[in-house]
Every structure is written in structure tokens, then in C-alpha cells.
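Hi W.,

Here's what went into the run:
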Amino acid sequence: MISVLFFGRLRDLLKCERLELHHRDLTCLADVRAALVQREQSWEEFLQSKQTLGAVNQSMADEYTPVNDGDEVAFFPPVTGG
Amino acid sequence: MIRVCQEDFDVGALITELQSRDSSCGAVVSFVGLVRDINQGEAVSGLTLEHYPGMTQKSLEAICTRAKARFEVPHIDVVHRVGSLALNEQIVFVGVAARHREKAFLACEYVMDHLKSEAPFWKKEQRQEGELWLAQNDKDTLALARWGESE
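Here's what came out:
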């Protein structure tokens, strides 16, 4: 399984904080985005937006970053701390 | 030292500790970020800071490691608060101790510029019309360009 977390405005828009996905067929971050959209079509505009950043195992990731069973994937808007 | 916490911090104590850590350092530079009452022309009465607990510490450590190597500064401390903050409250502290001031100033700015673009914190402002998630500021994106990195 892969744990998927959402933060900030994105979490409010999706009305979802966390979910679990079967690892099967998911090899990289882009696959996780696609699987989420397939599961919930209305999430497409938010998840496929270039503004939505991704992390794998608590490190910034790009679309080609590999994902493996047991990994933690997170999606969030551009950061605004400081 | 990197710390992410809800409680307020004592800038004086943080600087005093940094000053006494290493007698080869002749300069300590620090920055404190505060909650401001106006943002993008709108009155703000407070804010909530959310973060990604597993990632914030890691991200801040990575930024400080890069800054230490690039500017050859031995000590960088960062304290960042999360949770509900009222006007004028302290949000973030960055303190740098270095042999000379030039690199201490540069390292301090480098850490703040990168913290604002990489560290997973999100601000929600309390405004008159309700709560609003902040969008990233163009000024912050531009500030990164001067460090000449392709990220």
C-alpha cells in the first residue's frame, strides 16, 4: 500500500486528508496522480495542476520519482511559510 | 539546531546561546519574521500555520546544510512556529554564527529565501471576509533567482 497525504488549501478542496492506494501498477509519482484522478474524477483539476507539488517519503519529488510499496506520498500547494 | 514548535521563542536567549557556542565566530546575524497586520492591501487579524510534520524538519535541515557548505558558516539555527498566531507574534527565527559578517548575512538570507520556497508550511490568514489560504508571493519566487540555482 501507498499512503497519500494532502495539505493546506488542497486538502480543503479535496475534502480529504489521507488515503491508501494499492501499490500495484504504480511506479512513479505521475502514476499516483493518475490513479487518484481515476478514483475521483472531480480531483483532476486540482491534482493535475502544475501548482500542486509532490513529495515522496518526505522529500520533494518530480513526476518521475519512483514509488514503492510502503512509501508515503504527499501533495500540496506551493509553500507559504516564513 | 532546527526546531518546529507551537510555543513562542526567546530571541535574546537564542542569540546569546549562538554567540557563546564557538569562539572562532566573530559575527552573529539573525532574522525574525512576524505576523503583519496588512497583506496584499487587506487587513489581517491573525494567521494559522499548518505544516507537514514528517517533512518540515528534514527540509529545514537540508536548506541549512546547503547554506553552511556554500557560505562556509559553521552554525545556523532555525526555529519555526506552527498553529494559531496573533498579530505581531513571532513566526520564524534564523540565526547564523560565522567568522565574519559578510557570509553570515548571506547565509541568513539564503536560508530565508529557500525556507519560503521549499519548507512545507502553509499560512491561512484571518481576514474580515473570513479565512484565506495564502498563495505564493511572486517576490519570494524572484528572491530565489539571485542564488543562481536551477531547482
